[in-house]
Amino acid sequence: MSILEAIKNRRSIRKYKSEEVDLDMVYQIIEAGIWAPSSGNTMPFKFLILNDLEKKREFFSILLESIVRWKKNSAQKKGISITDLYENYKKYLAGIEKAPVFIFIFLDIEIGAKKFTNGNTDQLTNNNYLHNSLRDSLFLCVENMLLEASAIGLGSLYFEIPRAAKTPVNSFFNLRKSLEFFICLPIGFPDEKPIGKERILHEFLVER
Ligand SMILES: Cc1cc2nc3c(=O)[nH]c(=O)nc-3n(C[C@H](O)[C@H](O)[C@H](O)COP(=O)(O)O)c2cc1C
3-53+99-204 maps to which CATH number? Predict the structure, then answer.
């Protein structure tokens, strides 16, 4: 399969089979991530694999509460009740929660600080330019991982987690503060076959 074919074949998967995924496949996906380009070649990524059923359940209940808290005001303005909001998100998360593995991806601020700010992590996080360039590296890492998952027959998703839910992640896993939670990718066998939206190449070119 050419790289372009692999890119076109990848789809965001929101419904998973609970069928187990071999840990070697998970490592293969992470390996694709660590070969991504990174700012200053820092490779500032750290990964945590979550495949414990009970821990996963606990995480999703924290996530659901945080999303509802986050969306409450805007939903009320649109006339959506809290109960409906809760039920809608519960349904959406249920398909994703079924994925047997989640890869949590963190930005390791200490690695960035070692390279750019003489090890001073506060200086690094307060510098928008440096901080963003490290975060940008994580986007590229994630895209590599999404493509690798798809190429080996697994599904995944860029699964945005609200800021309100990101902060409790470090304490949930009992991790050091300098690991900044970026995103978690569900990994599992797809239980849906979404069709990609058509793209017409010339429509993406700037007219001159
Ligand atoms: C920055 C970013 C944030 C996203 N957040 C979510 C999300 O929170 N939930 C979700 O279901 N999909 C999310 N997606 C996936 C997009 O909805 C998806 O990529 C888009 O609809 C195109 O579908 P495809 O990935 O199958 O091509 C996100 C994608 C990106 C790049």
Answer: 3.40.109.10
